[in-house]
Structures are given as structure tokens and as C-alpha cells.
Amino acid sequence: MVAIQNSQKYDRQLRIWGEHGQKALEQARVCLLTAGPTGTEALKNLVLGGIGSFTVVDGATVEAHDLGNNYFLDRSHLGTSRAQAVTVLLQELNESVAARFVEESPATLIQSNAKFFSEFTLVIATQLPESVLLQLDSVCRQYGCQLIVARSYGLMGLIRISASEHSVVESKPDNTVDDLRLHKPWKELREFAEGFDLDMEDAMLHKHIPYAVILLQAAQKWQHWGGREEKGGEEAAPVAMQADGEGQGGAGEPRALPRTAKERSEFKALISAHQRHIDEDNFKEALAAAYKVWSPPPVGSELQAIFSDPAIQLSHASLDFWVLAAALKLFVEEGEGDLPVDGSIPDMHSLTDFYVALQRIYLSKADADVAAVQQHVSDLLKSIGRDPASIPLTAVKLFCKNARNLRVVRFKPLSEELGTGAPTCIPALQRLMTSSDGSHAALYVLLRAADQFFSQFQHYPGSFPGDVDDDDVARLKSLAGSIVSGGGSPSQSPSIPDDLTAELCRFGASELHCVAAVIGGVASQEAIKLITKQFVPVSGTLIYNGISQSSSVIKFS
After folding, report:
1. Which of 407, 366, 405, 373 has its CA nearest to residue 392?
2. Domains of the chain
3. Closest CA relative to residue 376, chosen from 434, 307, 323
4. What is the pLDDT of residues 31-49, one digit of tens each?
5. Residue 470 — very low, low, confident or very high, per pLDDT cuts 50/70/90?
6. Side-chain-side CA neighbours of residue 368 (13 Å)
7. Residues facing residue 542 across a β-bridge
8. What is the value of pTM for the model shown?
9. Could you tell me which of 439, 419, 423 has the C-alpha nearest to residue 496?
10. Residue 303: CA atoms inside 13 Å, Cβ hemisphere, count?
């Protein structure tokens, strides 16, 4: 009964990440640091999505400015615990989500009780300065907890993910590749294709032959008969028997699939020779997809990187992802470079019976490939002293289905990017400052400079009421110049535009709800990616400019 209720409750999102993705959400334990509008917006989306539990950490009380930028709060909450007020109101959105709050400053909690964070799947840290984030990142990495940093600052904002390693099985790219295995058909597929007569008299059946069958027959004829049709009423001799040696193999060897433009043109002519009418859509599809015969999808660079990753050398402590990757690598090596068939086929102009029969052949092959990979998984688990059945068949099947689009993302520690001890990022930052993303790189620098300003002067630039303080502008510009130069000569480094520096001071570290909603929304989206291991999360620092309504990702590779 509960499963049915959840299916109805989360119907729309189940269509995106499936029941297994929803299960991962329902097992997630999320901690929010600072219950301002940015954090509240991020957590709101996750609570509505059905996470397992959340904890809000905030030592502040609700003040007048909170009523202006956090629509959850009203005058009745003035003077009360902000952590408690936000927790109670967020839980009302989804009573199936467990909730609690801690009335303590995040900075104090990080220093006094670092082990507190060991119980969480994910920590979302909002509106925290660099010095606190550096400590938090170290703690999260120590306990294997993923971290999302979110910051709203006036009309600007940023998001940064930090985690040791994040593997993605279902990356769900916008463009998918069909692997019909037309270049190397297996026995059942070949026999299915041979069962069709491309010269059949029934016009209705002829125009409903699946294009995959047309291409398979054309490829077979090309390889064994040179792609030449009957001439003068006599059938051409097999390739090995012909005098023209162009494109031929030795005696008895099949001809290579088309490689040159001339051969590809001849191959398409071979297909067209069987087309009776211009309105036969299946032959149009075959001509459009002819390239799939001679250009099978290769193993992508991302997957090749996974196969060559040191983590694929397994140990007892290896994650399931790497056991599956090692098994997949063995399968690919056995299959001379071919990945498992995923079982899906594209739409084709065909009779339903033909299409369903073809679909079953691909599904049967996919099941056989999964079984082969599963055997490798069991053998590998046994070799590293683990239970051979500890990785279920469902996980192997999902892995094989998405084998072409596997991803592994490793995020740099914040310590390699922030603070004075990260000189390796300076050259990359200087290049970004002079690139087409120079304005976003400048905002990145200014947001970091604002934190350093706070560390030195105990207030953010422009945070006092009244006109913009020229001294604050000058100090902020000086700090920004030091970040860009890396302690070198500021005169030899790209400069920060004066108007951007003044604008940041004008913001006065305000947290506007319109910007907080955007930053919080993106942060929750990235959180779902991390929790469900679906879609590829942002690698780098995402900078949002609310003035120009633009964003870009700052990466130090």
C-alpha cells in the first residue's frame, strides 16, 4: 500500500529517475548549514522530492531581515530559533520526511564535534566564509560525506561540489547512440534477417521490412558478392572469384565493409536497387542509417579512461562500481572491443510483428551479455575475498545497459583552490580572466575577496547602511588583485573591472530571495544528481550573474 501511495505521490519524478533513484532519495540523510533563504530553498526542493531525513544547523534567531528574504517566515517567528522555525515549516511540506534541528553555529559545530557529520549522505553549506568551508571540506572528506557549497551574494551566486569521487551509471546524455551491431551480427540476428526476401511480391510487406534487416542483407551481399547486382541476366561471381582486386580479400575471405566514399556510394546503390517506390519509408530509413554498417559506435574516451583508471585494480575495499567496471573491461576484451548490447532498438517503419520479433532478438542478446558480465563479476568478487553474490543481477543489468555512458567525476579539495596555499590554480585563473568568461571569473575572484575582507575587517564590504564606502571598494579591489596575482605583482596580472568591484560593495552581502531561489534550486538539482547517481554533476564552480542572467562554470584543470 505504501509503495502504491509513493508511486502516486512522486509520479512525475519517478519518470525521470525511476524507482531505484527514488529509493536512493528516500535513504538520503541531508544536513543543511545555515537556514537562510538559499539553504531553505535548496532543502525545500529535496523535502518535496522525498529525501529520508534532514537536519538544520543554525545558531541564529529570526530577525526582521529574515522576513524580507525568506517567505517561509513571518512576524510570529521573530526572536525564535531560525533552525527550529525552518525545520517545522519544511517538514509540513512532506510529513514522510524525518526532520530535526541543531541550534548551534555551523562554524562552532565543525570545530567542536566534527564526527557529527559522519552520519550524513550529503551536507549543503550555505553562506559560509572560506575559512569555515576549508575545515568543513576536510571533515566531509574524512567521513565520506559529499558537500555542496552554495552562496547568494546580492545579484550574484555560486555553487561548488566537493567529493573524493563520484561515479555515475546513468548519465543520461541528450544524444544517445544506437548500437544495432550491424557490422558484426550474431547468429540469431543474422538468421532473422535472412528470413526476409527483399524481392518479395507483396508490396505491403515489402515496405514494412525493418531497415535493420535491409542493412544486414545489404552488408552480407556486399561482403560476399562484392555489392554487384546481376548483369545481363547473370549473377556476378563472388568477390574472391572476381578479377578486380579492389576492396577484395583473399580467396574465401569476405570483403571488408565500405571504407571509401566510392564504396559507401556503391553500398547505398545496393540498397536502392531493392526499393520499388519512392514512398517506401523503410528504404529511406535504411539509406539514412547506412553509416551504422561501416561506422559502429566506438568505446568513448570517458569509458576508456575508466578502463585505464588505477582504481580498476581491485582490492577487498573496492567499490561495487569498480568491480562492475573491471568485469565490463574483461567482457570488452573478450568481445574484441564490443560493449554489451543494451537491448533497445530505435523506431522503425515496420509491421508490429516484425518489430516485436526484432526487439526480442536484441533483448535476448542483451540478457546473454549481462549473464556473461555477471559471471565476470562473481569471479572477481571471489578473487578479492568477497561474497560472489553481493552485487545483484539488477545492478549488473543496469550497468551493462548504460555501459556506453558511464562517468567518474573527481572533485578537487577546496584547499587546492582556496586560500594562499593554492598557487597551482593561479595560472589557470589568470587565463580565465582574459577569456570569453572573464566577467564570471572576475565575479569568482570578487566573491573570494569578499570572504577575505570579512576575515580581516569583521564585516563584508558595503554592509553598513548608507552610500558605498570608497575605502571598502579600494580594500576589496586590493584583495582581489592579490588573489589573481597569487602574491606576485598585481600590475602584471589581469585586473578586476572597477564597476564590478563597486557593484559587489553595493550588494552589501545581501541575500535576495530571487537569487536565493535560483541558487537553491540549482543546488538541490545537483544534490539529486549526487544522491541518485544519475546525470553528471557540475565539476568546478558555477558562477551565476543575476544582472546579465548568465552563468558559467569556472574550472581549474
Report:
1. 373
2. 2-171+512-554 (3.40.50.720), 187-294 (no CATH), 301-408 (no CATH), 415-507 (no CATH)
3. 323
4. 999 999 999 999 999 999 9
5. confident
6. 11
7. 159, 553
8. 0.88
9. 439
10. 22
